[in-house]
Amino acid sequence: MKVSIIGGATGSGKTTLILKLAKYLNSRGEKIGVIVQENGEVDYDEKTLTDLGIKTREVNSVCIPCSLDTDIRSNLLTIQEEFNPDTVFIEAEETVLPHKLKADLERMELDDVELLPSVVLVDSPEFEIEEDQLTEYVRKQTAGAEIVCMGKVWLDTNKHSDAVLKLIRKLNPDAKIIVYPENDDENFPAELLG
């Protein structure tokens, strides 16, 4: 079972991104699971989830890192046992550092679990271009991500999105940076999922 952790600020488009990736994988015959810690702007519609064969589990916890051993581990094991999905997405709230969550899951040595690169989604038009204006969580998420996905670039000016890209590269020179396309692009999900 592959596990993908996707973080980012509230409203950055995490839920929409996960649904897009789930549809892509489902069209290739994969079963998908989603663990949600926070509801995004776009709710996970039950009909859409059923049509895609997606099973969800909600983490009823104030803080993912505070309850990893009980909530996340138990939810991953339960979804694996009950549904045996090929891929599980963990949608983390904006105060969670996906790379730290991934490191914690690696230490748990879960059987038959492959952790995909940690992803942080940034909303290009809303992203501050001065480092000292970033919230602590946004800065730390961006600096620690293995993949930074720039979303809503088509709604941004070229000057601002170039400044966002420059700041991301400054914060995290090792990250793979991917631009979330406005329209469907077959290569995008494959690139993001490695």
List keywords for this structure.
194 residues; alpha/beta; Rossmann fold; 7 helices; 39% helix; globular
Strand content: 15-25%
The ordered string of helix (H) and strand (E) elements is EHEHEHEHEEHEHEH
* CATH secondary-structure class: Alpha Beta
Helical percentage = 25-40%
Count of DSSP H/I helices: 7
Shape: globular
Number of domains: 1
CATH-defined architecture:
3-Layer(aba) Sandwich
What is the topological layout?
Elements: E1 2-8, H1 14-26, E2 32-36, H2 46-52, E3 54-58, H3 68-83, E4 87-91, H4 98-107, E5 114-115, E6 119-123, H5 136-144, E7 147-151, H6 158-171, E8 176-179, H7 187-192
Parallel strand pairs: 1-4, 1-5, 1-6, 2-3, 2-4, 6-7, 7-8
Could you explain the architecture of this structure?
The structure is a single chain. With 194 residues, this protein is of the alpha/beta class. It has one domain (2-192): Rossmann fold. It has helices spanning 14-26, 46-52, 68-83, 98-107, 136-144, 158-171, 187-192; strands at residues 2-8, 32-36, 54-58, 87-91, 114-115, 119-123, 147-151, 176-179. Strands 1, 2, 3, 4, 5, 6, 7 and 8 form an eight-stranded parallel beta sheet that branches. β6 (119-123), α5 (136-144) and β7 (147-151) form a beta-alpha-beta unit. The chain is globular, with a radius of gyration of 16 Å. 37% of the residues are buried.
In short:
This protein is α/β, with parallel strands linked by helices and 194 residues long. The chain contains seven helices and eight strands.
